[in-house]
UniProtKB/TrEMBL annotation:
Residues 268-285 have a biased composition (Basic and acidic residues). This is ABC transporter domain-containing protein. Residues 2-244 form the ABC transporter domain. Keywords: Amino-acid transport, ATP-binding, Cell membrane, Membrane, Nucleotide-binding, Translocase, Transport. Residues 258-291 are annotated as: Disordered. It comes from the Bacteria. PROSITE patterns: ABC_TRANSPORTER_1, ABC_TRANSPORTER_2.
Length: 291
């Protein structure tokens, strides 16, 4: 369904510095109807790789195929049309605050040039029903919880009836209980609608809950991949240090003779700040995504 062949993305150098190779010759085959997890620490290149799939970030080298079409061979109107088959959601939800829930969902249909108003209404209702928010259609984002906001974002992504749903840290701003709910909706969407899901996260719990296959990223490269079911095997031994850390759950520190304690990973210590940064970053991309 999704095929990445030797995909690289290099950002130009800042003054006096080297260019940043955010994605470095990644090849990945993602079968139709599967859930692919991509995990790694902050800065590993996960978001860039995800944005390479819908060409929100055009790779500087390599080829991207989605549903039999080589996206990297397209531009302009043809690329825009191909992107309608690919939905995307973000850590920061990216809802438009002065539009109702229904209007937020309808936005993606307007960008997709679904010109008939009655058809747009039908599809908005259909998408909101999938995430069980039909009764919140006329409310505004400010009246919703974080989990509900993310469900609206899922509805907005589904309204154009995509074949692929790209998820960039979709639960990183949510508490564990809400995370479970949102992941359940993503699992249902995958199972009931057959949508191929790619989910980027730094949380192994998310991968364990949802993914069929895992790719571990470090320094722009996929350094390890395995079926997610391996994580349940007691004798499973990731090949890389980062894979081991991610599978093992927790940094271990020596507290001067006391038993080593699990502490939170660095990325999780300042969730609010991270969320804010991600939201600011995401909002730049909203018009492109819903377009
Ligand atoms: N638009 C950009 N311009 C320059 N550098 C970027 C840009 N986007 C990401 N980077 C850099 O690319 C690397 C990978 O970033 P990113 O894909 O956001 O990683 P992750 O999502 O795993 O945290 C980082 O070093 C980041 O600073
Ligand atoms: Mg990221």
């Amino acid at each position: 369904m999704i095929s990445l062949r030797h995909v690289s993305t290099t950002f130009p150098a800042a003054r006096g510095e080297d260019p940043i190779r955010a994605v470095d010759a990644v090849s990945l085959e993602i079968p139709q109807g599967s859930i692919q997890g991509i995990i790694g620490f902050s800065g590993a290149g996960k978001s860039t790789l995800l944005r390479n799939i819908n060409l929100l970030e055009r790779p500087t080298a390599g080829a991207v195929h989605v549903a039999g079409t080589e996206l990297t061979a397209l531009d302009g109107e043809a690329l825009r049309r191909a992107r309608h088959h690919i939905g995307m959601i973000f850590q920061g939800f990216n809802l438009v605050n002065n539009l109702t829930v229904a209007q937020n969902v309808e936005l993606s249909l307007k960008f997709a040039e679904v010109s008939e108003k009655a058809e747009r209404r039908r599809r908005v209702a259909e998408a909101l029903a999938i995430v069980d928010l039909a009764d919140r259609a006329e409310t505004y984002p400010a009246q919703l919880s974080g989990g509900q906001k993310q469900r609206v974002a899922i509805a907005r992504a589904l309204a154009t009836r995509p074949q692929v749903l790209l998820c960039d840290e979709p639960t990183s701003a949510l508490d564990p209980a809400t995370t479970a709910t949102v992941l359940q909706y993503l699992a249902d969407v995958n199972r009931d609608l057959g949508i191929t899901v790619v989910i980027v996260t730094h949380e192994m719990e998310v991968i364990k809950a949802l993914a069929d296959h895992v790719a571990v990223m470090e320094d722009g490269r996929v350094v390890e991949r395995f079926p997610a079911a391996e994580l349940d095997r007691e004798d499973f031994a990731p090949r890389t240090a980062i894979g081991e850390y991610l599978a093992g759950g927790g940094i271990r520190v020596d507290r001067g003779g006391r038993a080593a304690a699990d502490v939170a990973a660095p990325e999780q210590t300042d969730r609010a700040e991270q969320t804010e940064q991600a939201a600011a970053h995401d909002s730049h991309q909203l018009s492109e995504v819903v377009g």
